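Fold sample X.
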Amino acid sequence: MQIENNNLIIHAGREIDHMSAERIRREFEECYMTGKVKNVIFDMSDVEFMDSSGIGMIMGKYMKVRYTGGRVYVAGVPKHIDRILDISGIYKIVSKCDNVFQALKEC
């Protein structure tokens, strides 16, 4: 994870399952509590596997940052993960970008 301006960039890794989603949640909370985070960008470019824990994790971060006027982005989503996110309806609440740089421009 890294903070650039007021944007938290979360590098999701290769797998988003229950264990990794919980780790990301904990690390997010530590960064978010600093008060320096407004928007969250999930860098999905390395993700090879994601289950429903990943969808829940993204939804949870959306619910948290929307109250402070922030936005959530997913960036660099591989095609097989894009299908999962599309079917789940996540794109109705978060923005999809081709890469992290595009997401940073939109923030």
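Fold sample Y, listed below.
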Amino acid sequence: MADLYLKALESERRKLWAECRLKGLAQGTPERLRIEELDRLLAAHRTKAAG
């Protein structure tokens, strides 16, 4: 079965990353901070799913 939570996190991260690249946003902006938070959530979810 598809992991919808994981797909939603990855989708949001891709959208934000594209926006940051397009606009040339620097580190410390809310979008970049959200990407860092999403990275932590993705890592935690993957370790929980694996173990």
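Sample Y note: The mean pLDDT is 93.
Also: The chain has two helices and no strands.
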